[in-house]
């Protein structure tokens, strides 16, 4: 009796191992096919495809990350199911009555569920964060009063490094509100204070030339969605008249565009003899 039982148990365990291996191979293949198909599609679209990918969060890197995370979730769930079925089948072959075991497991499961509520909440929140693509590695986000760059997105914890280099570990279940400046597109905003007695029309013409030259520069055109605009006079005080320029650009590129626009605008105004405000040059940025 026992030799036959031992052979049956060994066969069940072998089936479980082979089944898990086949599931993992299938998941990895599906993840690879999904990411390869998305990358090839975007490559065919060329430059418009890159802008579309950035604006919709469909970059190949993000696709790969989301697919890998979901593959990990599905793989873990499949492993749990296969292991549970194999264990119950082995117990039945050994001759153990499964009814009391299942009843005890039900009571224990209820107790465990009460004790692991926060863990389950964190994992479920992590799954939804990944599926909905609220943020990904490399995004600049503000979450729970922490602003920084996402370094890792896990099922339970998200790690964010702030501007001071501090690494924050945030439980996904505690994340209730997220601000992401890296999705879709961004606005680079440059404010240029000049002397209030200067000719605003002349200064605006100079800035419009700067905007035209900037849009024609191949080194920076790739970061732009729309050419820079000169909005005109933003504010007037007793010490400064502030002119504003904006540029709609790819996500996460607003800071570089802003710095270059500011430098070119200042050179143009200085070369034309436009006096700066007493308070100096300033800038700001907004995103959308």
TrEMBL record:
Pfam families named among the record's database cross-references: MS_channel_1st, MS_channel_2nd, MS_channel_3rd
Primary location recorded for the protein, binned into one broad class: membrane
Signal peptide span: none
GO MF: mechanosensitive monoatomic ion channel activity
Name by which UniProt lists this protein: Potassium efflux system KefA protein / Small-conductance mechanosensitive channel
Keyword Membrane: yes
Annotated Mechanosensitive ion channel MscS C-terminal domain residues: 204-274
Lineage: Bacteria, Bacillati, Actinomycetota, Actinomycetes, Propionibacteriales
Membrane topology (UniProt): Multi-pass membrane protein
UniProt similarity note: Belongs to the MscS (TC 1.A.23) family.
Subcellular location(s) per record: Cell membrane
Residue ranges annotated for the Mechanosensitive ion channel MscS domain, each copy included: 119-182
Single GO cellular component term: plasma membrane
């Amino acid at each position: 009796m026992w030799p036959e039982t031992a052979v049956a148990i060994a066969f069940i365990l072998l089936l479980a191992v082979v089944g898990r291996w086949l599931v993992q191979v299938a998941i990895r293949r599906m993840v690879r096919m999904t990411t390869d198909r998305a990358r090839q599609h975007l490559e065919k679209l060329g430059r418009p495809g890159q802008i579309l990918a950035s604006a919709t969060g469909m970059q190949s890197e993000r696709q790969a990350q989301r697919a890998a995370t979901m593959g990990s979730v599905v793989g873990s769930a499949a492993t749990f199911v296969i292991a549970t079925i194999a264990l119950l089948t082995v117990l039945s072959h050994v001759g153990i009555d499964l009814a009391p075991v299942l009843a005890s497991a039900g009571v224990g499961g209820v107790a465990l569920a009460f004790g692991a509520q926060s863990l389950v909440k964190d994992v479920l929140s992590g799954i939804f964060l990944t599926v909905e693509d609220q943020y990904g590695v490399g995004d600049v986000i503000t979450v729970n009063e922490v602003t920084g760059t996402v370094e890792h997105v896990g099922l339970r914890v998200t790690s964010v490094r702030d501007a001071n280099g501090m690494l924050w570990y945030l439980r996904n279940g505690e994340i209730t509100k997220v601000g992401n400046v890296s999705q879709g597109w961004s606005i680079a905003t440059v404010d240029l204070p000049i002397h209030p007695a200067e000719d605003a029309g002349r200064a605006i013409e100079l800035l419009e030339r700067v905007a035209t030259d900037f849009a024609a520069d191949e080194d920076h055109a790739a970061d732009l969605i729309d050419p820079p605009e000169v909005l005109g006079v933003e504010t007037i005080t007793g010490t400064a008249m502030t002119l504003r320029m904006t540029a709609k650009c790819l996500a996460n590129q607003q800071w570089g565009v802003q710095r270059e626009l500011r430098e070119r605008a200042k050179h143009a105004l200085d070369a034309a003899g436009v006096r700066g405000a007493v308070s100096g040059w300033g800038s700001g940025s907004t995103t959308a």
